[in-house]
Specification:
This protein is of the alpha+beta class and about 450 residues long. Helices cover about 55% and strands about 15% of the residues. The longest helix is centred in the N-terminal third of the chain and has 56 residues. The protein is rod-shaped and about 175 Å long.
């Protein structure tokens, strides 16, 4: 601007000097007069420069500020000194900068919300994956119930930041609850929690009402809650009953250590799904145990079946050989049972089998096992008993069967049994050998007149 102004000032300066020297001061020849003319020209040029600078400087300042704002400093503002075109332009740039800053703040807030949403989605995906994993384990039955419960509590606690968890299940003999699984517990005294089925404490109400309960900043403080939280060093917990219908299987407690925390409904729903998975696992375990029990039991008499008693016989023989202890095996065969069934009918025959089974079971030793091994045959496995002791027990059972009325309402009807006794290692070193020896003894008893014990 300075160079351009200086160059452009030469022409008016020369023109001005020419006019002055020719028309105004034609006789002007002295140095003083020429100096005056030059000085006046310079003053006019400087005034023009000042005027031009006054016009251009605000534009330059505005351009510098606009460049700084464009670099990202949206907190800066252009100073507006006059209400002219340049001032209006500065106000427009300031307004545009304010809108850009507002949009950026909104975008930043939206980005933060999206980040939180993504974290929440990621957490829920992991949670759902854990639920599927637990469901697969329950279906496969690949691990023990205690390990499965620990895994489920651990995954449920991961729903919340700094989460911890505990699972309590009923103790039949005391009527209370015991701790079955615990995860990520630091200073919380969850292992000291006392829960009683018939109690009136904070957690007992959850079991009675069978409804989930939360303790967080949204819950109105009370003396009972404050004492409960202080006693067990707790901040935020969600207590979910584990139940099926009216049957209580346990109580799941999930919590965290965050200040001013409030449980979200969708997080609680996820924990409730874990609680349902735990319920399914417990019910599945109960069903499996019943299935196993049915697989080794005779439906009519509730005694063990043949497959089970023979498998146990092999195990007891091995143990007896290792410890050099006796082990006996007894078979009871009902005499003339087909005739009894034909005479009194099928229902009477079944009732007779149940009564004989009860007599045999009631007279088995504490470590012994009783079984029904065929339609009219029973067996008794007697660890730690030699042949003499086993024969005495078999004789006692024979007498009780012989003196028992086998009918419910009709006249007296009795049955007798022929009994064979064998012992390891005298009569054999395997289950098959003892079984064969006892069967041969029964055959001998039948030949000798039935209703007797042969060893």
């Amino acid at each position: 601007m300075m160079v351009a102004f200086s160059l452009m000032s030469i022409i008016p300066l020369l023109a001005y000097t020419y006019i002055i020297s020719i028309y105004i001061f034609p006789q002007l020849q002295s140095f003083v007069n020429i100096s005056t003319v030059i000085f006046a020209s310079l003053v006019i040029a400087v005034l023009g420069l000042v005027f031009a600078k006054g016009l251009v400087d605000p534009v330059i300042d505005m351009a510098i500020e606009a460049k700084i704002i464009a670099s990202g400093e949206f907190d800066r503002k252009i100073a507006v000194l006059n209400d002219d075109e340049i001032g209006n332009l500065g106000q427009s740039i300031n307004l545009m900068t304010q809108k850009i800053k507002s949009n950026l703040d909104e975008l930043k807030s939206y980005s933060q919300k999206m980040r939180e949403v993504n974290i929440d989605i990621h957490k829920k995906v992991l949670t759902l994956s854990s639920l599927l994993q637990i469901g697969d384990i329950i279906s496969a039955g690949s691990i023990q119930l205690d390990s499965l419960l620990e895994l489920a509590v651990e995954k449920a606690a991961m729903v919340f930041d700094t989460g911890y968890g505990a699972l309590y299940m009923p103790r039949e003999e005391s009527g209370g609850f015991i701790l079955r699984a615990l995860t990520n517990v630091d200073k919380e005294r969850l292992s000291d929690l006392v829960i009683k089925k018939d109690g009136h404490g904070v957690l007992e109400k959850v079991l009675i009402d069978q409804c989930a309960m939360v303790i967080d900043k949204s819950v109105k403080p009370s003396k009972e809650l404050d004492n409960f939280k202080t006693s067990y060093n707790l901040k935020n917990i969600a207590a979910i009953p584990i139940h099926s219908g009216r049957k209580i299987f346990g109580l799941l407690i999930i919590g965290n250590r965050l200040d001013n925390f409030e449980f979200k409904d969708d997080d609680l729903d996820l924990v409730k799904v874990f609680a349902k998975q735990i319920t399914i696992a417990i019910e599945s375990d109960i069903l499996n145990k019943k299935t196993e029990e049915l697989a080794i039991k005779d439906d009519l008499t509730d005694l063990f079946n043949k497959a089970f008693i023979l498998a146990r016989l092999e195990e007891e023989i091995k143990r007896a050989i290792f410890y050099q202890r006796p082990c006996s095996f007894i078979i009871f065969n009902i005499d003339d049972f087909k005739t009894f069934r034909d005479t009194h009918g099928e229902l009477a025959a079944e009732e007779a089998l149940r009564r004989i089974a009860k007599i045999i079971k009631d007279n088995t030793s504490p470590v012994g096992k009783a079984a029904r091994i065929s339609g009219d045959e029973f067996a008794m496995l007697l660890p730690e008993k030699n042949k003499k002791e086993s024969t005495g027990m078999a004789e006692e059972v024979r007498k009780k069967i012989n003196s028992t009325n086998m009918l419910k309402e009709e006249g007296p009807a009795t049955l007798t049994v022929s009994v064979g006794v064998s012992e390891n290692p005298i009569d054999g070193a395997t289950g098959d050998e003892l079984f064969k020896k006892a069967t041969d003894a029964i055959r001998q008893a039948k030949t000798s007149g039935k209703n007797r014990v042969v060893a």
